[in-house]
UniProtKB/TrEMBL annotation:
This is Dehydrogenase. PANTHER family: BILIVERDIN REDUCTASE A (PTHR43377). The lineage of its organism: Bacteria, Bacillati, Actinomycetota, Actinomycetes, Candidatus Nanopelagicales. It comes from Candidatus Planktophila versatilis. Gene3D superfamilies: Dihydrodipicolinate Reductase, domain 2, NAD(P)-binding Rossmann-like Domain. InterPro entries: Gfo/Idh/MocA-like_OxRdtase_N, Gfo/Idh/MocA_Oxidoreductases, NAD(P)-bd_dom_sf. It holds the Pfam family GFO_IDH_MocA. Residues 4-123 form the Gfo/Idh/MocA-like oxidoreductase N-terminal domain. It comes from the Bacteria.
Length: 355
């Protein structure tokens, strides 16, 4: 069988430690082309990952008739790059946040449907076995109509978002560019875009919702150019309420282990998913109680999982897509409203029709 032909647009720090190693380690993949800024960095990537084409022009990736393309460029470029990749005939993995604006996200969903290609979003936690087990349990037996949901996340991003250093596990050679993370024109914001997109992606995978209203406080200590901490209240389209909190932890806390928890209460039961403590608990009004037995480190994220899922989709396993474009668009809607609220100092109401 011929190999899956792959390319990466935006082969920066994250792609260098996650996506490119995942592709290289598969016997059924050939990395044909990569794109990023900087001749020396491109030359290094070309040698390390045995890439045929290394260019600063993303169209040199798009034009190679590839099976799969990963878009890991700055968020403000995601729509342009992912749209071109989809239209080239490739299945696409777009890093989070999918885009900065909800309109652009839904446009990518539309394009993917038109060209009959799969669009995946880089919500790494969604591809973990622990999360998939929880998802399957909720498919078998849900908690009914949602009444309340809380989402909490804390990760070591203080240095990154304050322009004082990289994040844990960042490539030491392909160093994160500060403008990608801390220039709002490129990133769309701080901790919300960089990390809470993951929390929303996990929560809405398990309990699909659409945000109707949001009120947000955001803070930027350490003279950070973007927010380090978020406190957001939501009203969902069905009338349920929810909270989303996020904090930039100190480097070294919990040995840099990510904290991510989703708790939801419905009229027929409730659940708790805590990746930090490896807990997946379900309770139902009929008295059923399920506390899943999980192995140690079940909540540790697999950074290679999203790229592997993209390849598996190209090989015909559509069930491998556990973070489809529609999910990405819902998270962008939620974050867009939160940033609107923080900027205006009042409740932001969704303008999407037929919520």
């Amino acid at each position: 069988m011929s190999k899956i032909r792959a390319g990466v647009i935006g082969a920066g720090s994250w792609a260098a430690v996650a996506h490119l190693p995942a592709l290289r380690d598969r016997d059924d993949v050939e990395i044909v082309a990569v794109c990023r800024k900087g001749d020396q960095l491109l030359a290094s990537l070309k040698q390390e990952f045995s890439v045929g084409i290394a260019s600063e022009d993303y169209m040199d990736v798009v034009n190679q008739e590839l099976d799969v393309i990963i878009v890991a460029s700055p968020p403000n470029l995601h729509h342009e790059h992912a749209a071109a990749a989809l239209r080239s005939g490739a299945h696409v993995l777009c890093e989070k946040p999918m885009t900065i604006s909800a309109a652009q996200s839904w446009d990518l969903v539309k394009i993917a449907k038109e060209v009959k290609r799969e669009l995946l979003v880089g919500f790494s936690w969604n591809y973990m076995p622990m999360v998939q087990q929880a998802y399957e349990q909720l498919q078998r037996k849900g908690i009914g109509e949602l009444e309340q949901m809380s989402m909490q996340m804390a990760t070591q991003t203080r240095e990154l978002l304050a322009n004082l250093g990289p994040y844990p596990g960042a490539s030491t050679e392909q160093v994160p560019e500060q403008d990608t993370w801390t220039n709002p024109k490129n990133s769309g914001g701080g901790y919300g875009q960089a990390q809470l997109s993951h929390a929303l992606g996990l929560a809405f995978r398990l309990q699909p919702q659409r945000v109707a209203e949001a009120f947000a406080f955001m803070s930027s200590p350490r003279n950070a150019p973007v927010e380090l901490h978020d406190a957001i209240s939501y009203k969902f389209s069905n009338g349920a309420i929810g909270t989303l909190s996020g904090g930039s932890s100190h480097m070294g806390a919990w040995q840099n282990k990510d904290e991510l928890q989703v708790r939801a209460i419905g009229d027929q039961g409730q659940f708790l998913i805590d990746l930090h403590r490896e807990c997946a608990y379900f309770w139902y009004v009929d008295g059923t109680e399920i506390n899943m037995k999980l192995p140690p480190n079940a909540g540790a994220v697999d950074n290679f999982a999203a790229a592997n899922a993209l390849v598996d989709v190209a090989l015909g396993n559509l069930q491998a897509n556990r973070a489809p474009g529609e999910l990405g668009a819902l998270t962008v809607e939620a974050l867009e409203l939160a940033y609107q609220s923080a900027s205006l100092g009042k409740i932001a109401v969704s303008q999407v029709k037929n919520l």
